[in-house]
TrEMBL record, chains A, B, C, D:
Keywords: Acetylation, Hydrolase. This is Glutaminase. Substrate binds at residues 54, 106, 150, 157, 181, 235, 253. Homotetramer. The keyword Mitochondrion does not apply. GO terms for biological process: glutamate biosynthetic process; L-glutamine catabolic process. The gene is glsA. SUPFAM superfamilies: beta-lactamase/transpeptidase-like (SSF56601). Its EC number is 3.5.1.2. NCBIfam families: Gln_ase. GO terms for molecular function: glutaminase activity. It catalyses: L-glutamine + H2O = L-glutamate + NH4(+).
């Protein structure tokens, strides 16, 4: 049924501002869906890894919120959506005091990266890779080539980070926050890993691999996370996709999308689900062209929208 | 259980920039909940009417989208949330071409008001009061005193409307669009009416009063409406309430809130529900203080959040 | 020596957003220079009239400042230059309190128009035409066709005026201020009249026609006027022309330019001078293409710059 | 006659955001005036040094313009005044392409610093200290303590520099441009040196110490410099002081002011003059309180304004 999407001619472009992403193959496609019983459905034949890019903003927020408490995080970053481009500086200066609007835009994510537990860049990055490993059941590491290529051209992000520091919204040094943020963007995983993270969020923090029913994160953290994904997860197209797809999602310019389904049925899968999507060609706004197309069709067909 | 909220000391302020609203009693409170079987639950003892104010933005959008088609409406207004104050002009000029961001901010709602069916202000206003009457089963009219007091001090809204006209986002004249918009803001109804409208949206357009199962609006219109309420329904606090309450809502500075519940159980009520809330004291952002407090508690207690 | 400028092929465009200006001949050219002894030098053969457009901002400021006192005017408008387009709204909202930056941009000029002496639009317009007549020695009237065509499409100016009113920077009603402003823009005069006004400002308020040496305006008003012309008189190119021409000037989209020379010698003319220039083709920024070209050459050749 | 200013109680504050400036004595005062014949007039008894701070923007511009040619510099920075705070980022993003508005705001000055001749920070700083030494006849060096304290807290400037780099308005690295800029800000000199620099600019590049009449800089560079000082030299108060003082000036937050007089008579001094002023208490905008007060009185008394 979704063959038409998968085999359609490639549209969009690769994320050319990150040199390491500009060279990959254009026609990769992979979808991995998993439900709370562990049932699995896949589409496409790509089995490799992608880097998290902006999807890492979700994981950083979860780790920071659960270690510090949401209220501490909210002192440094709001949770309000914004219609601005994802890396806007204007908004920082116009708004009172320069407080970043939400953890899903670069300014907010750089602030959150600085709040992660640990006193060094390594410790902060490890707090997130450890969390991801706990959910996926395997090790994750930073793609150093991608990280380095992002660091070399991070002028706008470094401008934002300095601006945040000037207004006292960063813990530690500017370079620590920036390096932490960009290392998190460069963590590698598969669509299976994305799906397991999506399911983890959908279940408010349960692990498939653990028999006892203990939520690893608070219900409050899970709710804030899903609300942020719904209202700000897809850059400037968040509102459109809330209407046409209607599930909490977060995309990255690597072409990945992380999705959570609160309740649904897709073939033999049922109840809460996580969906990991990957297709590297992105549109002007930064979302995977085929990925979003696929998600619109599957949401429509299986009536997945919360609305 | 909610007595503590209802009887708490009044906080916030009345909407003093609208003279007719600045004189009402501070301690009014009313909640009306109705489910898809017609079961009802109420709190508070206020039985009177309130004016829709910004809640009218929801009805205008439904009528315009269902008469013109969503795609026609989207040519003149986006559906992207924004972290800006509800009456910001800055955003219009900074964004390319001055297109209003969404129908829940004043700029977008003035544009939508100009797109309503009919060639006169009267006809356009009637298209909305007729729609509301169809849902509530009774007549609705414009409170002329409130309308006039708003017209007299509508400098910012008139600035916005002229700006939209200059950029070709208004049908007809500036004064027609402005008058239509402000008349819609001044439509009177009760919390029961709000609840019935909320239920109508929750059911994607079913009427309680009609036995046959025919949706009056398209599923697409209903979804866009709910997504807009979730992402932009509560001014600059939309993100916060998406996290803490988690249902599609729209508030007005008169102190009313319209809510839809997709699926829940509140005492003997079940399934899809509409909730109408009214308490006139509002906070800095424009939302009813007691109203939002009540909604946070009832959502928490009955687990109404979609997240 | 200036023949090359005058006979050069036409570049730029007519001010097409004002219907009445979009139809005139493209190749008109006129320059009138007069010194404090009444000696005259002219270039070009056009003898007709032009409308003041933005040049009227200078006259309004002089009349308002001299009747109210500069300090009263400064309570409602600053005198700081700005690099923004002449009709920007953004600046009004970003700056604290929405105070207009200076009387040479539309926002400031609309405020100043509302401060003119008199209780009606007619009286306020007359206060300025009377002032001009006193200087030029002949009657001046408003071109009603130009005025009407500007009123019909004045959406941005009306947006600005409503915004100013919302922030309490307008005296009287929005429509009065707007109508006064646009009538002033539509006052007709010749390049000789412009030159006499330029000389009047250069001499801090002396009249050629009067033998006794009595300044009609205060030295303070004259200085503020010249400083405003130098720092903000040519829209977004004020800085460039301060460097390359270096005399106080004010242009209008009708293609006119009013100039004052503090001290100089041009052929047989000496000392303080006024220059009136007219050529209707304007550049992207709004300044007369041939007019500015002529002024650069004459300033260079006769060393007229104050710098 | 100016005793009242000099002995008035101190108002304003020291530039506390630069630690090394926050500790100096409040009641220092020095004025040095020199004319083209070398005649001198002084006020106040302070003989020490100050750091250039923003006054260095004038020297950088002169050196860059004279070595590269004005047109090359104008490709990377405009010469248009702006009403924004001196370190605004907003303007960079709103304006097309992020081009800095003029060399007198931080963004423009950081760009100009990157264009100075030489391939290293040292060489670029030396190009400016050499120029200053040529004019003053003595060696100048960077106050390393001030430079270091500025580098440590340069978050906003580093944000601006990264933003400029992202938009391709910087030559070399961000850190080179920033370091060059802040070293230039920390060059030490006396009010006599400031006066000699002011005279040098007033005479379009003549040196008192040299008998032959050879201008060291082009007339074009001198004119652009004076126009920039007049339209943008005093931060957001440039327009006000153009009206009330009316000579090209540039101030710094160290409390210094550099002034040029094109033609005047002050006691036994005549013709072109330079004025150096120093008093460390500055107002909200960043200008020396006593310094500006003194300049307003002397300009008024000796009629120094070009208007």
């Amino acid at each position: 049924m979704f063959e038409a999407v998968i085999s359609a001619p490639e549209k969009g472009h690769l994320a050319d501002y990150i040199p390491a992403l500009a060279n990959q193959s254009k026609n990769l496609f992979a979808v991995y869906i998993i439900d709370e019983k562990g049932e699995v459905l896949t589409f496409g034949d790509f089995k490799g890894v992608l880097t998290l890019q902006s999807i890492s903003k979700v994981m950083s927020f979860i780790v920071a919120a659960d270690s510090l408490g949401i209220d501490q995080v909210l002192e440094k970053v709001d949770v309000e959506p914004t219609g601005d481009p994802f890396n806007s500086i204007v908004r920082l200066e116009v708004a009172e005091k320069g407080k970043p609007f939400n953890p899903m835009i670069n300014a907010g994510a750089i602030t959150v990266a600085s709040l992660l537990p640990g006193d060094t860049v390594e410790a902060r990055v490890k707090s997130v890779t450890d969390f991801i490993s706990q959910v996926t059941g395997r090790e994750h590491s930073v793609n150093q080539e991608v990280f380095k290529s992002e660091m070399e051209t991070a002028y706008r992000n470094r401008a934002i980070a300095n601006y945040l520091k000037a207004n006292d919204y960063l813990r530690g040094t500017v370079e620590e926050a920036l390096e932490t943020y960009l290392q998190l963007c460069s963590i590698e995983l598969t669509t299976e890993d994305l799906a397991r993270l999506g399911l983890f969020i959908a279940t408010d923090g349960l692990l498939l691999t653990v028999t006892e029913n203990k939520n690893l994160i608070t219900r409050k953290t899970a709710r804030y996370t899903k609300a942020l994904m719904m209202t700000c997860g897809l850059y400037n197209a968040s509102g459109k996709y809330a209407a046409t797809i209607g599930i909490p999602m977060k995309s990255g310019v690597s072409g990945g999308v992380l999705c959570t389904v609160q309740n649904g049925q897709i073939e033999h899968l049922q109840g809460r689900m996580g969906i990991g999507v990957f297709s590297p060609m992105i549109d002007e706004i930064g979302n995977s062209v085929k990925g979003m197309d696929f998600l619109q069709r599957i949401s429509e067909h299986y009536n997945l929208s919360v609305f």
